[in-house]
Design goal:
This protein is of the alpha/beta class and 261 residues long. It is built from eight helices and nine strands. Strands 3-2-1-4-6-8-9 form a seven-stranded parallel beta sheet, with helices on both faces. It has a two-stranded antiparallel sheet with strand order 5-7. The N and C termini lie far apart (45 Å).
């Protein structure tokens, strides 16, 4: 990260869930391109480690311990960003978790947990940054959705319900505030090589075989990398995408276009 290329020079960005995986890759790439990055992460050890690494490589990063399901903590994250950086230009709603059940076997509390984290938190964070963005005349919000936002896989309930709704939230906010300089878009990754994917494979008797199966079902015969999602977020957050709004970019190697019999 020694070369600052400036595609986000001077921008102030909040990235939630940036302690690992896709969020970490986005935070690192945004910092490499000149943004001041505020890492909203619940786990202190990973969030601080990412911030420290960015700082050690010449970037600008601040860790703010944040549970995105807690409105007070989200408000603190946004206020810290405004106080230290003077405003908020970019919000990436990345924090989330997989919750997969057969519907009638789902514990009662799992529904609320999934909606709180995978849907409501994106609105909580968006609601917190929108006044600042509107006041300064513009901003970009990027929601990390999922291939589950469009496809239903049995026994993955209620995760796709939340992710379908997240696309609806993206489009509704995008249309509501487009004329006031706010762009809201989403990214829908498929299988990406993250700790969450690794943890999922480990639930199978043969994790390596399950990984190979995941690779095989994608046309490129591999799964995606967090950096590949991050570069799409970089484009959507930058001034290079001023007329892209209310869109969801699918990053799945073409799997969603593949015919299944």
């Amino acid at each position: 990260m020694s070369t600052i290329t400036g595609r986000l020079e001077g921008k102030r960005a909040i990235v939630t869930g940036a302690g690992q995986g896709i969020g970490e890759a986005i935070a690192r790439l945004f910092a490499a391109h000149g943004a001041s990055v505020f890492i909203g992460e619940q786990r202190r050890e990973t969030g601080q480690a990412v911030a420290d690494s960015i700082l050690a490589n010449g970037g600008r990063a601040t860790f703010v311990e944040t549970d995105v399901t807690d409105k007070a903590q989200v408000s603190r994250l946004v206020e810290t960003t405004r106080t230290k950086a003077g405003g908020v230009d970019i919000l990436v709603n990345n924090a989330g978790a997989n919750m997969f059940y057969e519907p009638l076997e789902m514990p009662d509390e799992a529904w609320k947990q999934c909606m709180d984290l995978d849907l409501d938190a994106a609105w909580t964070c968006s609601r917190a940054v929108l006044p600042a963005m509107l006041g300064q005349g513009g901003g970009a919000i990027i929601n990390i959705a999922s291939a589950h936002s469009f496809k239903i896989i049995p026994h993955c309930f209620p995760y796709p319900v939340a992710k379908h709704a997240l696309v609806g939230l993206t489009r509704a906010l995008a249309i509501e505030y487009a004329a006031r300089g706010i762009r809201v878009n989403a990214i829908a990754p498929g299988y990406i090589d993250t700790p969450i994917a690794e943890a999922y494979w480990k639930t199978f008797p043969d994790p390596a075989a399950e990984r190979r199966r995941a690779e095989h079902i994608h046309p490129p015969k591999r799964i995606g990398r967090p950096e590949e999602v991050a570069y799409t977020a970089l484009f959507l957050a930058s001034d290079e995408a001023p007329f892209i709004n209310a869109e969801t970019v699918v990053i799945d190697g073409g799997r969603s276009a593949l015919y299944h019999d």
